[in-house]
Structures are given as C-alpha cells and as structure tokens.
Amino acid sequence: MSLRPPEPAPGQAATLVARTAARAAEQGLADVAYTILDSPVGRLVAVATARGLARIAYELPNGDLDTILDQVAARLSPRIVEAPKRLEDVRRELDEYFAGRRETFGVTLDWALVPSGFGRRVLEQTARIPFGATRSYGEIAAQAGSPRGFRAAGNALGANPIPIILPCHRVLARGGGLGGYTGGEECKRSLLSIEGRCFVN
Amino acid sequence: MRSVSVSRLPPFQRFLDAHADDVLRFLIASVGRHDADDAFQETFLSALRAYSRLRPDSDLRGWALTIAHRKALDVHRSRARRPVPVAEPDGRSGDARHAGIEGDHWERVRALPPRQRAVLTLRYAGDLTHAEIATLLGCSADAARRAAADGLKTLRKEEPDVAATA
C-alpha cells in the first residue's frame, strides 16, 4: 500500500464548486455572476453585476464561453463566478418572452459595457422601441442626434452588449430590409416573428 | 468587444474549475473527509477575496494549494483546542473510520508533527516538488526533504509496508 492521493467522492468537487460560487455571489465577494441559458435562438450567456444585467451573449456567434468571459473579465472584473440563482429573474423573463407571454422586461440593467457618446445614445433610443414595432437605422441615428450617422448607428447596434433586452433586433434596414444582427440574421428573424413581424427573405 | 491580452488573470470561475480537484485531494489528505468540504469553500472564498491583488503571471495552482494549506492549519489548530472526539465502538474516531474506508495512510499522516504532515500532504496529495513546498512553507528544500523522510520513517515504523510512490 502506498501514499496515493485520496479520491474525492464522485461529483464531490463539482458540488463544492457550485456551492462555493453560490456563496461568493451571495456574500458579494464576486463582482460578476453568470449563467448559461437555453433558448429557442441558441445558448445564451447572461452576465450580471451588483447593479444589474450587463451582458447577454449568443454563445456561438459571439465566441465560446471562455472568449465571452475573458472579455467580461477584461472590461469589468476577473472576479467572476457561475451563479445561476443570481440570474433567476433574467432566466424567467426571457423564458416568458420566448413563450410569447412577455412584451417588456423588468430586470435592472447595468450599462457598464455600453460605450459612451453616440453609441450610447443609439442604444438609449433603441431601448424605447416598443415590442412589435421597428425603426430604420436612419431613424435611430436621427433620434440619437445624428441624422446622417446611420452607419455609425449600425455599428453601435452591432456592439450592443445586452441584445434581446435592449432590442436592437427592432432596427431594420431602410425600405424594410432585415439588416444585420449580432446573433445572426436567422436569429433576428426569429425574434421579430415572436413579436408578430414576419420576414420571409 | 476588444480581444484580451494573455497576461490577464483568468475569470475566477475558470481558476476554481481548474484547481478544484487538486485542492480537494490535498484537503481530504490533510484534514480528512469530514472537514474537507468546509475547508475547500473557505480556501476558494479566501482566494476570491485576494484575487484582484494577484499578479497575472503567478503560479495559480501553487497559490491555491498555499491557501488550502493555511486553511488546513486552521482546522488542525482548532482541533488542538477542542477536546478529543469521542471514540467510536471500534476504538477510532468517526474521521478515522472514514480514513479506514479509504484504505490509505492519510489518517496516520494527519497525526504526524505539523511540518511532516504538511510536507507529506503537499508532496503526495498536492503533487508539489520539495522545492515548491519549501517556498510555500518558507523553509529550505533540504528541510522539506528531511521532514518528508522523517515522516515516512515514522509511518514505516508503525506499519512496515508504507511506501511512498512518485
């Protein structure tokens, strides 16, 4: 018999990791909590600070989980833990939205990842587009104070850190074309169809 | 969002996931199964408190085991202050019974003097080198090696077939 490392019970490490992360979030030791959500438009990574929901990332188009968390660590804080309980309200509201039972979101947002200046004004205007309505890039640019800035508006919307809840999918190309989307065009079409807008092409 | 330079600290969750198994093995060896769960959580909560001050190029595994070692010392110190646990019918404490189920010698390692216990658990459950252990304990590599040899000698005296692998 030899001095071999002891074997933890099956699942013991995973259970302790989850318990430790939950405690870190509850005690406010972690600056950032995240969870992975399944949705009809693919897996989402939802990220919250003490101030509110700061990021929703589409796992595939926006990079894998590691890439998404590296970006959040660089921009906000590396003190990040996986704490699904902290994002339970976000999960519930998104589930209701995807099931067609919710038109507006009540979760508090943290705008920390939103750039300042024109990009921020574009997203502020976008946040006011009601469920089921749409605007053109030009209209949003004008409302944000720069009527000719539709291209810059498009870039700002493409960098939206909280898609779905800051509804950049409601901003379309002039003449009613779909325009681009951070989660891919198919995803934009799905969100608009949830809101009763149909885009065939 | 911009890409990230390589010299940054990883998100804490990745650090926790990466070193959970090693820290848990070390703690089970060092404080026993009964106290390992609490010590594990205390280890990583302490790590999180200090995380922002850590240099990105630090040896993260060694750092995790260093904190775990300190938590293990806390457990042993508080045991020393507590009365001896009531013996189970088979003459051993509940903790020892678990160790018996493991079929290993960690229970006897836990009864060694602190330096020998620390060196043997860090070496054979934490898989650190004597040099790394010396840095961690603030002693010379020779002193660490000597403590390991003394500890193993005691274990062999109690039970001649104890052999350290690796």
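Chain B has one domain: 12-158.
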